[in-house]
Amino acid sequence: MKKFVNDPKQFVPEMLEGLALANPDTLTYDPAFNLILRADAPVKDKVAILQGSGSGHEPAHVMAVGRGMLDGACPGDVFAAPPMDYVLEATRRLATDAGVIYIVNNYTGDRMAFEMAQELAEAEGIRVRTVLVNDDVAVKDSTYTVGRRGVAGNFFVIKAMGAAAEKGADIDEVVRVGEHVNSVTRSMGLALTSCTPPAKGSPIFDLGEDEAELGVGIHGEPGRERVRVPSAGAIVRELGEAIISDLPFQKGDRVAVMINGLGGTPVSELYLLYGLVHKDLQARGITVERNYIGEYCTSLDMVGASLTLVRLDDEISELLAAPAEVPIRVF
Amino acid sequence: MKKFVNDPKQFVPEMLEGLALANPDTLTYDPAFNLILRADAPVKDKVAILQGSGSGHEPAHVMAVGRGMLDGACPGDVFAAPPMDYVLEATRRLATDAGVIYIVNNYTGDRMAFEMAQELAEAEGIRVRTVLVNDDVAVKDSTYTVGRRGVAGNFFVIKAMGAAAEKGADIDEVVRVGEHVNSVTRSMGLALTSCTPPAKGSPIFDLGEDEAELGVGIHGEPGRERVRVPSAGAIVRELGEAIISDLPFQKGDRVAVMINGLGGTPVSELYLLYGLVHKDLQARGITVERNYIGEYCTSLDMVGASLTLVRLDDEISELLAAPAEVPIRVF
């Protein structure tokens, strides 16, 4: 296995410890529950925002914790939902009178953990709401999902909700913002290789030397089609058409574009893809107002990329431009 | 070949076009000479800073162009020095009365192109100085180098010189800053895989399933030793010891630490490495004041990482903390 790792079972805690050591002023780490929290949490009178899911998608979501984004993240092990009691403990640590919102990407395991934690937290008198993210247009249901999967578009939901909460919006308003952003966000990805979880030590699926998985999930779930490796231009056309026709995005729309690397793709190739997407959208009369190029939601070491489009209005534009203080690029 | 690419010969221009389209307010791209320049260049009365080298190391150096960093970059093709006339043209575009400084990573091809361009530019009346970067402690001479190679530590030289120039320092002073930072910066890397240039379509060297190259160069040049894949802890000890003993870094020193991904390494693993480095330095009585974790100088899709340490003093600390406006993380 070609990884920078010690004991594979300690992969997640060692990564989280590194994250906390790198951000001593802004983050705290509680190894007992795998929690990464804002150092100043709970933030009085502010709605708190929590996300948790399997690890292996970094920088999502642990590196999106900080002012103007998440108040905390409770990651599970690699590609595994967080234990319910970790979610509950995170909820207690973040809870304020303003309440706590869970952002849950739509996977069955994550939903179960967060639903159970919500029930128990509410029984303790904590006000909790949940926003589901399901931006992946590739397939209707999937290996671990009923309904659409939540993928990199999740970043925009966090960013907008985080900005709204920071400005003092109440829990209903922050939930509304999150659901609104999710409703105008669409993503789809393509894998050129599989990925290798540290504890498994071998790829989770097989992909031939000349094959690509169109519409791949971020845990290696099958997409729409196994294809011969397409040119970058053909990939942009396939992903773009699937996403644009789905909302649909239309001439005159203003959008944010994300080219997200899945973990093993050089940034040079992501910029190459961005140029093609930008010109394709321009030709359709769609205006790119904001762009995000890099890694936002990965699948371990997978060579692949995803495209996300968000239809902007003045409200979303302003929230996306708001300041934030996290280890990743947010502007 | 598993890459996001159209015609491999157009890899660099398509990537540069994407970069320019993503940064319309801050960057301009001239396809005739492969140039990425600050949109407001030449900046009156300011010393201009130019770097060029082979492509394939992104975000170095084209994504380090902007206010407070480089005024321009003149990349060559993948792993190939820029043509001398591209360097000369870039020099003309950036030239002000305050002069132009070349930052040249120590590779024979790059040095030749920049030395010839400097002669011709000076003949045209442009004031030019050169700062060499040679931070890689792995080997004395190398495949394309007499003397030490310049690798990821280059980022710190750019950042400090860019900040000094932005504050109005004159050409001698900005050169002094660059040479000072280079003199206290040391790096070394390790590769777990080779890398594949788009136009070649196959790996540039062979590395067995259980092998790693300790001290690898960013063009896949041999390092110190071919080893069995070490644990993350062993890697940190090897790289740390080589770097620390070289300057040497000593108890009581304050440092900036960079964990640089070589292109195909997940950010989770880089943070895991950072945690180990941080604790190792702490145990040695060396204080980490600034950290940089991510991709700064890559080798296409190579799975690997490098460690860079910079010995800080108040001057360097202040320059590293100065504002900058480029597509990569600089703080």
Brief rundown of the structure:
Two copies of one chain form a homodimer. The first copy, chain A, is an alpha/beta fold and 331 residues long. Chain A folds into two domains: 12-183, Dihydroxyacetone kinase, domain 1 (Rossmann fold), CATH 3.40.50; 185-321, Hypothetical Protein Tm841, Chain: A,domain 3.
Strand order of the largest sheet of chain A: 1-2-4-3-5-6
The fraction of residues in strands of chain A falls at 15-25%
Q: What is the H/E order of chain A?
A: HEEEEHEHEHHEEEHEHEEH
Average pLDDT of chain A, rounded to a whole number, is 97
Number of helical stretches of at least 4 residues of chain A? 8
Could you tell me the radius of gyration of chain A in angstroms?
19 Å
Tell me about this structure.
The structure is a homodimer of 331-residue chains. Chain A is an alpha/beta fold and 331 residues long. The first copy, chain A, folds into two domains: 12-183, Dihydroxyacetone kinase, domain 1 (Rossmann fold); 185-321, Hypothetical Protein Tm841, Chain: A,domain 3, CATH 3.30.1180. The first copy, chain A, has helices spanning 11-22, 84-94, 108-123, 154-166, 171-183, 232-246, 267-283, 314-321, and strands spanning 27-30, 35-38, 48-51, 72-73, 100-105, 128-133, 185-191, 211-214, 225-228, 254-261, 287-294, 304-311. A six-stranded mixed β-sheet of chain A has the order 1-2-4-3-5-6, with helices on both faces. A six-stranded mixed β-sheet of chain A has the order 9-8-7-12-10-11. In chain A, helix 7 links the parallel strand 10 and strand 11 (287-294). The two termini of chain A are 35 Å apart. The interface between A and B is large, with 54 and 53 residues.
